[in-house]
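[Automated response] Your request has been received and processed.

Submitted sequence:
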Amino acid sequence: NQEEAFHMLTALGAGGRSFYLTKILPLDFPFPFAYMLFYAGWIALLLKHIASRDWQKYLLIIPVLAMLYDWMENLGIIILLNTYPNLPAWAVLLASVAGILKLIFIVVSIAVICLLFIAFLVKKQRLGETNMAKHHVCPWRGGPLLTASLRKLVHNPRRIVGPYLSEGMTAMDIGSGMGFFTIPIAGMLGKQGKVIAVDLQPEMLAGLQKNAQKAGSVNVTAHQCGNDSLNIRQWDSTVDFVLIFMMLHEVPDADRLIREVYEALAPDGKLLFSEPIVHVGHKKFRDSVAMIKQSGFRIIATPKINLCRSVVFQAVKGGHAYFEPMVSAYQSGMRQRSGHDAQGFRAEFYKSLSQSQRALFGFFAYYDHAIRSTDEFRRITTLYLSDQIFSIVKRGAEYFEAESMQQLLSEIEETFRVKGDVQSSRVDELYDRLLEIAPRTLTQIGIRIKENPEEFIYFMPGALT
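Generated structure:
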């Protein structure tokens, strides 16, 4: 009542009333908005996880009413402070009633959150170890947050995927969301390239298409996958690079997804697999890596990516699928021998290969090392030229009728045969051309193998065992 309000304000004193009006109340106006967002956020999140009915969305009004009544209470207090000592009765009533209603709706908000959380725990217990409990797909409403510019301070797309892309490639972004990686990849591939964005949620893909349109990316294809399959058979053996970034732990059947990715990749295509260190522990990540290797991949790099565990794989298909048994036999034999015996084994091993196997072994033995870096390119080229092995590499390219590669290998040989150190700029130029031409050569090799696979199957002769 008015009398109690008068005594309370009198007890504050002039300094107290001024302090409350100028210091406390300005802070008290944003505070109701903050707790309203907190309570409403929790209610919305829990409703999403318990398959709520339509009427339950009105529970979000409760924290909003708490905020409004808090503001009404503050308004009443402002009026009382400015009209003291002549306090209007209606202002006293406004402040006191609004204050009581504010407390009621705050208590009800907390009670609703507790009840919804109990309902969530009950549902989770009933689900047990089903896929719904174990695998949670990131909701599409978080898409704009995942594509925020600030994220580039942690995960820069060009630094992460740039080393594995070149113009004209076909790339695939699994779990693309609204295009945080997809759109930068589209720019790196150029007009002749193409990026396929795969996502489960149509809302994510709709957001991606809007973002691609804003960025002017016309080489982006949006593809909605199913709950149990990527449905990407139309791109079998055509994709050069696949990105699986921080999403494999969300997939119920990761084995199937990786098998589909393997089928989509072109011979020697690359897969960048990365998982967040927060959600995926070391053991689980190691198990995923082992599963991917068993699906026909080999590890070629382990890049450092902030807050992630990451591995780059290469699909062992086409040329590499037939090269791997040969190189394993060769390395095993060389480890067991030394000096003159090793040289003898090398000669016998080479003789044991058919013409087709010899061409494949010669080319891949060089290619596998040369593409790793400019320093390795320089080292392996110099070594092969000194051992007269480079001619075998050239004959391999000739056998597969890879004219562009033949011409490049001739230029490499001519450049490195010159006495004195080769200029770094020239080495960089030749290395870049090797990276550009190699994918086309690998495709030609894959086609040749597919036509006559029997020519390339290697069984180690007993004499070399």
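Summary generated for your ticket: Residues 128-134 have pLDDT under 50 and may be disordered. The longest strand covers residues 265-276.
If you did not submit this request, please reply to this message.
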